[in-house]
C-alpha cells in the first residue's frame, strides 16, 4: 500500500449529527461540521467527480447517496447509467440507526483525527492526545500479569512446554487448558457454552468468592467479553409489541451498551435514576416510581444493575442489594447483575457483594425463585485484558426450556474465542500459595490495585478543588463521573450548534488540551445537570497532569462564558 | 468440584423436538426421547422433588416450568410460595425460538453424550465417536502452522522477543502487530473496525489475490470469525414489515448460519436451489424463478453466495460469477459473497475467482455500482484456526452513510478479539520468499492442502461405490454432501417418530458406528431427496475406516428397511 493510497479521512471519522446521520460535504461543503474535517472528506486517490470510467476503485454512484428520493436508475454527468444504491440510510434497518454508543462516539473519532494530525506534524496546543474515555488499562500503560501471558504463550505454541525458563505452574495450567481443547489446540472450536474445564474452574471460583454457595458449571456460559453475554440475555427477554413490548430497567447514568442493545432490539428502556447526592446510591422508591410509570406503556421484564458502578463508581451496600432482590422478586423481574468490576473496590468500608451470594443468603424463598444472570469479564479488575474478549455469565433459576434455547442460540456463533476462554480460566484459577508463580502474581496484582486505589482518591481530591466541579468518591470501578457547572452562555452556544452542552464542553476540552473524555449525556443524567466520564487509568504522574489540565480548562472555559 | 457435583446430563444435552422445545421427563418420563437420556435428566445432586427448603442450589420452581398457563404464584407441595418464572418458553423472544442450527444440533448433543458414556466405560458397538459434522480441522488432528503460532506466542508474551530460538521474521511480524496495539499489548481494545495495520495488510493481500484490483483498507472490517460479519451485514439490510419485509436469497442447500440469522432478524428466507445433477451449479434461471416468486410477498434485498460451496463443495466458474453479478445488478440486490474456503480448491480445472475481482473486470458499469460484501476467516483453508475467531469483510460500493452506521454498530461490541486479528494478519501476510520461515511455511501449507485434495477425491470415490449413495465431486471446501436413498419403510418409521428421514438415518448411524454427520435437512434440500454432510477432515487412515463404516452402515440400513 503506497502512502498516497491510505485514506486520511474516512466516513468513520466524521462527526455524527444528533439525528444519527453523518454530515455530508460533497455538495459544496456547506453542511455543519466540526473540527475542520469536512473539506478533506474524499480519498486522496479519488478521481475528480466528473471522471469515472477510468477509476475502477471508486463508485460514481456515491454522488447519488447525498440526495434523497432518487429514481431507481439515473444518468450521471458523463452519460453513464448509475444505479441508486440498494442499501441506503433510508432503506437500512431502522433499529440500527437508533443505536448510540458514546464511549466510541464522535468525540473519540475526533480524538483519533487529532492524533493523526499531530503525527503529520500539525501544530496543536498539546503534545499528545490522552484517551481517558474508555476503560482500556493496557492502552494506558498497565502491564499484563506475567503468569497469564506465559500460559497464553504456552497454549499458543506448545513447543514452549519444553522450555525450562517457563515456570511449572504455568506449564501445568497450559496443559490442562490444551487437554480440554479439541486436538489439544486453541485453534479448535470449543463447545458453544465454553470449554467444560474452564466452566468448572469458573464454578469453583464463584463458590470460593461467595463463601461456599454452590455453583453448577452447567449454569456457566463463557462469552465474548461481558457485552456478548448481556446482549444475549437481553435478546432472550425481549418479546411483545405495542403496550406489551418488553421493558428493561436500567440505571441512569448507565453504561451505553444497555441502551444500544435495547434500541437494536426495539425494547423499551425504563430509566431509574441513581441518587448523585447520596454517592450514586440506588433508592428502591425510585425503582418503584420508574416501574409503576413504565407499566402504563410496556411490559417490564428485567432489571439491570451495574455494581461497582459504571460510569458512576459507586459500590452497592449489602442492604441495597437485598432490597433490589426483594423488589425484583415482588415485581417479577429478571435480574441482570453486571459485576465486571468486582475486584475494583477502593473505598474504605466498601466491599463487593455478589448478587448471587446475597440471593442465596436470603433463603430459599429467594434463592429458589429469583432469576438472575451475573456477568464477569477478563477486561477489567487488575488484569485489564480487554483485547482478548473473555467473559462468562452465570445463570440462576433459569427455566430449563429457555436454557436449551440459550444454548441453541449461542451455537449459531459456534464458540467464544478460545484464547479469551483460556484467559478467563487463568483469572478464576490464578497461582495458588506454594506454586512458583504465586508471589510474583500477588505482587503484580497488588501493585495494580493499589495504584488504582490511589488514583481513585487523587481524582476525587483534585476535581473537588475546582469551583464548578463536584465529584463523588470513586469507591470502585475505573471512572469518575463528576457534575460540572456549565455557564448559561456556553449552554446557549451549544444549543445553537445543535450539541448537548456537555458534548460542547468535552469537544472544546479535547481541541484545547488533547484530553478525550465522554460527555455525561452519552450515559444519561438528570435533566439540567452535566457530567463527564473520565477513567482513572493513566499512570499516576500523567493523571496528575491530566487532572490539572482539566482544572485549568474548566476555569478558563468558565471565565470565557461567564 | 467433587466428582459427584458434576452434572452428567444437562438440558443442553437433551434432544430438541421438532417444535424447538426440549423434551421433558420430570412428569412421569413418558415423553418422546432418544438414546435413553430421559430418565437421567436431573442432576445427580438434585434433591428429591418433594424436598426443597434445605437445598439452596436447586430451584423448586423448576417443577412449575413443565406445565403451561400457571398462575403468577402457586403453592408448592411443601406449602411454600413458588413464583412462576419471568422467562419461560412462552414469554421469551419468539424469534429466538425459530432459530435452528443443525451443525450443532441434537445429533451433536447426542454425540457428546455418547462420548461421555464411552468415557464412563459404557459398552458401545464402537470405540470412539468421530465428529465429522463440523469443519474443525485441529480437532481432527490437523497441525497449526508453526510460524503463525510462534508469532502469537511472541505477541502474547513479548519477553520471548529476546529468545534466540524464534526466527527473525516471526519477531518482526510480532513487533509490527504489537506496535499497532494500544500500549503495545494484545490486551488493549483495538479500533472497532480492527487494527489499522492489519486492515492494510488485508488490503494488500486482496490486491495480490485479485491481480492488482485496488483495495482500500478503509473498506476492510475485521470480524469475530466470518459469521460475525455475515450477521452484521444481514442486520443492516433488514427492514420493512408485511409484504415489504426484507427478503434474502440463499442457496439450498445452505450453511445454516444464514437461515438462523434470518430467522432471528425476522427476515424472509428466499430459497434458490443449486443443481445437484450439474455438480451443484447455480442456474440464473433458478435465481430468477426464486426472485420472481418472492417479489409477491416480500422485498428482496440481498443475494448470498457461498463459493467454494458449503455444504456442497462445488467451485463456481468465472462465467457463473459474472452471471450472478449481472443478475444482482439488474435486480438491484446487495451481493454477499461467503468466500471462506478460497484456498480450498482441489479439482482439476477448478479455480477460485473472487467476486471482487470478477466484478472489477466487468468494467465500471458493474464495478462502480454493484454493492458487495465479501467474507473471509482464519477458520478454514490450510490454517483451520477456528478457535481464534478471526475474520474480515470487505465492502464495495457501500453508501457512505450506511458505512458510518456500520462502524457505529460495531463499536457497541468494542472490537473483535485481538489474537484473532493478529492471526488474520499472519494469514494475509505469511512468510515471503527469502525470509527464514518461508520454506517451512510452504511445506506445511502444501502438506495440508495436498492431503485435503487427496481426501476429497477419496471421499467421492468410496461413497460412489455404495449402492444408494451418489456423491458429486468435492471440488473445494471441506465437505461431501452425498444424496442417499432411504427405503420407504425407514421413511415411514422416521415419520412416526416425528423425525426427518435423514435425521433418523444419521442418528442410527451415530448409535451404531459412532460417526457423527449432519442430516441434509439441516441445510435444506429438494423435497423427497435426502443427504448428509460429512467433512473430509479426518486423517487419511481414519477417513478410510470412516468411509468404509459409512458404507457398511448404509448397506445394513438398506437391508434392514427393504
TrEMBL record, chains A, B:
<dbReference type="InterPro" id="IPR015424">
    <property type="entry name" value="PyrdxlP-dep_Trfase"/>
</dbReference>
<dbReference type="InterPro" id="IPR015422">
    <property type="entry name" value="PyrdxlP-dep_Trfase_small"/>
</dbReference>
<keyword id="KW-0808">Transferase</keyword>
<comment type="similarity">
    <text>Belongs to the class-I pyridoxal-phosphate-dependent aminotransferase family. Alanine aminotransferase subfamily.</text>
</comment>
<feature type="region of interest" description="Disordered">
    <location>
        <begin position="32"/>
        <end position="74"/>
    </location>
</feature>
<keyword id="KW-0032">Aminotransferase</keyword>
<dbReference type="Pfam" id="PF00155">
    <property type="entry name" value="Aminotran_1_2"/>
</dbReference>
<dbReference type="GO" id="GO:0004021">
    <property type="term" value="F:L-alanine:2-oxoglutarate aminotransferase activity"/>
</dbReference>
<dbReference type="InterPro" id="IPR015421">
    <property type="entry name" value="PyrdxlP-dep_Trfase_major"/>
</dbReference>
<keyword id="KW-0663">Pyridoxal phosphate</keyword>
<feature type="compositionally biased region" description="Low complexity">
    <location>
        <begin position="39"/>
        <end position="64"/>
    </location>
</feature>
<comment type="pathway">
    <text>Amino-acid degradation; L-alanine degradation via transaminase pathway; pyruvate from L-alanine: step 1/1.</text>
</comment>
<dbReference type="GO" id="GO:0030170">
    <property type="term" value="F:pyridoxal phosphate binding"/>
</dbReference>
<feature type="domain" description="Aminotransferase class I/classII large">
    <location>
        <begin position="184"/>
        <end position="547"/>
    </location>
</feature>
<dbReference type="InterPro" id="IPR045088">
    <property type="entry name" value="ALAT1/2-like"/>
</dbReference>
<dbReference type="InterPro" id="IPR004839">
    <property type="entry name" value="Aminotransferase_I/II_large"/>
</dbReference>
<comment type="subunit">
    <text>Homodimer.</text>
</comment>
<protein>
    <recommendedName>
        <fullName>alanine transaminase</fullName>
        <ecNumber>2.6.1.2</ecNumber>
    </recommendedName>
</protein>
